[in-house]
Amino acid sequence: MRTKTVSGAYTPSIADMRQGRILLLGADAEVTLPAVAGDDYVVQVKAMAAGPTVESAAGLEVGEYATSGSPAVLTETTSAVTLEAGEYRRYVWSEASPKGWLLLDRSCPPSTLRLSGAEFALIGTGDGSAVNFDLPSAGLAAVYPFVAGAPVAPANYSVSAGAGTGGVDRLVFSTAPSSGQQVLAICLRKTAK
Asked: Residue 151 and residue 141: Cα distance in Å, rounded?
């Protein structure tokens, strides 16, 4: 697992994001998530003590998905987020999102998988019967789907590698999204070894 200890004011570099480093934040760490043009990225942080903050640059806000609504909407923070000791968060940048940075998760343990970034994509609209939705690419490290703005529990979907049109990965739901519900996915990519 690649880690980087951070104290004081710090803005993650492209290398931090592309190599999937876990930023270990001291109590005085003030992390500013940068505005990044031209690609999607992931920033993973873990608070080693209470007190570090995370905010977003360039007038963007650190946002997270609301639990309902179609299309997906964000609940925005208006100031920096303060982390508790041991708290872990993974943020994803996507130019497709209204505010740039999204909170992907805050509860799972740090991943040992090296990540090159992420893709935030609208992959379809439910019709009440379709359960198969093609993802944007193949060989994905992880997929986080959302239906009508709500995250889908891992027990309710699977990913079939290479089963989609043209060999892309395919998302398969256990229950078809209702008619008119938008299906979005955040797709994490692996780095080349």
From this structure: 18
